[in-house]
Amino acid sequence: MNEFLSRRKLITTGLAAAGASGLAIAARLADRYGLIPPDHGGIYGAGETLTYASQRLLVSRQTLAREFHPSEISKVAPVNGEPPEQEVYERLLAGGFADWRLTLDGLVARPAVFSLEDLKRYPSRTQITHQACEEGWSFIAEWTGVPLSYILNLAGVGPRARYVVFVPFDEMWDSLDMNDALHPQTLLAYAMNGQELPTPHGAPLRLRVARQLGYKSVKYLSRITVTETLKNIGKGLGSASPEIGYSWYAGI
Amino acid sequence: MAQPAYLSRFATRGADVFDAPRHAFVVRITHWINTLSFFGLLVSGIAILLAHPRLYWGETGGVGTPSLVDLPLPFVLAGQSGWGRYLHFLSAWICVCNGFVYLVSGILMRHFRRNLLPSASQEPFPAYNVLQRFTYLGTIFGLFPFVIWTGLAMSPGLSSVFPTLVTALGGQQSARTLHFVAASFLVLFLIAHIAMVCAAGFLAGVRAMITGYGAERI
């Protein structure tokens, strides 16, 4: 009986140890291949990790979001939130954004500062895509801007870079992994439906992330930083959204 | 082993002895995990719906555009959809993984064939009548897959890889509306299911789904 028990104990302990080290190895591999989201902790972390990892395995860097015909552009394009109330933003808005600059820094070979005119001189991309809000409503609009990958390549992204952080004039900073940052449909958009980007939609420049929900498309951009880790920014959850209860990855 | 006298006394009353095998172990464990995950999906689904309780048809829709249905519910814009979405997707993963175990074991152990397929019933006292069997089969093989499909069709990530997911349904807002309709039918099923369990004896039914044994059917 004793022998049986000790053998059983041996087997279960062995299995538990194998399971634990297996999980640890899986976690390390998953992190290495960028399958773990920054908000992987807490009670909902397992679900977030499964969603993010499975979408990263299914959705390649080249997979394009659906694009639409000009006749499908929505007549109404609602927005959430108000333009930033910071004095510096209001001054730039009053001056027609002539003095506005976009800073690009972090893990890049050539940090740079761009004016709106600089960005408009670069090769542009125009796309008609669907944007859904996490609340449930959605609209289709045409966006024109410079692909984020273009200015990242101009600056020369370092080999250790894993995330691109977007700092706007308001508090809703966010970040993308390199899969979405270098995606051909990820734009720094300065025009919407053939017009200058309207102020409520993020003037003078906003991010467009075609394969995620609307709140990932940061408005009122001021600075872009390339980084290896998100742990030392804010609460270390990857963006302002998880700090107020919304997931970092919004591909679902 | 000596049988205590009081047990045999009870045995003569038939219905008080719960020794008739009723539900297999996998069926019981997946039933309760499904109960928990479905409850999580329902509560979080309501929290998400309340952020915008209007339904549309086609690709787009929002305040200022014509809706299909304005549900008689308040707009709750106090950030309840954040935890709602976290809980919804965690519960969905549990529900889908659990459902997969149930499906595979149900095929291997002939649970569907023996207990749910109407034609194959050879028992003198089948547990479920034809209508119940069709309802279970329709829920397991119709409603659940459809609610998963319509849910995934709303994902901008997945619809970029599999556009047919959403175009086959008539658009992203159509998918959202159909997801709500499918979820409503699942809630209807749940109400009918609980009503049937109550009619057949709630405690005995719950006990059978926990222990695996029910009263002898007479």
Describe what this molecule looks like in 3D.
- The complex is a heterodimer of chains A (252) and B (218).
- Chain A is of the alpha+beta class and 252 residues long.
- Helix content of chain A is 30%, strand content 22%.
- Chain A has a single domain (65-243), classed as Alpha-Beta Complex (Sulfite Oxidase, Chain A, domain 2).
- Chain A has helices spanning 2-32, 45-58, 87-94, 116-121, 148-155, 178-181, 240-243, and strands at residues 101-106, 112-115, 125-132, 138-147, 163-168, 174-177, 187-192, 195-196, 206-208, 221-227.
- Chain B is elongated, with a radius of gyration of 21 Å.
- Chains A and B meet through helix 2 and strand 4 of A and helix 3, helix 6 and helix 8 of B.
Question: How would you summarize what this structure contains?
Answer:
With 252 residues, chain A is α+β, with helices and mostly antiparallel strands. Chain A is built from 7 helices and 10 strands. Chain A has a 5-stranded mixed beta sheet. In chain A, strands 3, 4, 7, 8 and 9 form a 5-stranded antiparallel beta sheet that branches.
Question: In terms of topology, how is this protein built?
Answer:
The complex is a heterodimer of chains A (252) and B (218).
Chain A: H1 2-32, H2 45-58, H3 87-94, E1 101-106, E2 112-115, H4 116-121, E3 125-132, E4 138-147, H5 148-155, E5 163-168, E6 174-177, H6 178-181, E7 187-192, E8 195-196, E9 206-208, E10 221-227, H7 240-243
Parallel strand pairs in A: 1-10
Antiparallel strand pairs in A: 1-2, 3-4, 4-7, 5-6, 5-10, 7-8, 7-9
Chain B: H1 5-11, E1 20-21, H2 25-49, E2 54-55, E3 69-70, H3 80-108, H4 111-116, H5 130-153, H6 156-161, H7 164-167, H8 172-211, E4 213-214
Antiparallel strand pairs in B: 1-4, 2-3
CATH class of chain A, anyone?
Answer: Alpha Beta
Rg of chain A, rounded, reads 22 Å
Flag low-confidence runs of chain B: 1-15
Main beta-sheet annotation of chain A = 5 strands, mixed
Main beta-sheet annotation of chain B = 2 strands, antiparallel
Number of domains of chain B: 1
Query: Per CATH, what is the topology of chain B?
Result: Fumarate Reductase Cytochrome B subunit
* Tally of DSSP β-strands of chain B: 4
Order of strands side by side in the largest beta sheet of chain B?
1-4
**What is the CATH architecture assignment of chain A?**
Alpha-Beta Complex
CATH topology of chain A: Sulfite Oxidase, Chain A, domain 2
Shape of chain A: elongated
Helix proportion range of chain B: 55-70%
Rounded to the nearest angstrom, the distance between the terminal CA atoms of chain A is 53 Å
Give the proportion of residues in helices of chain A.
25-40%
DSSP strand tally of chain A: 10
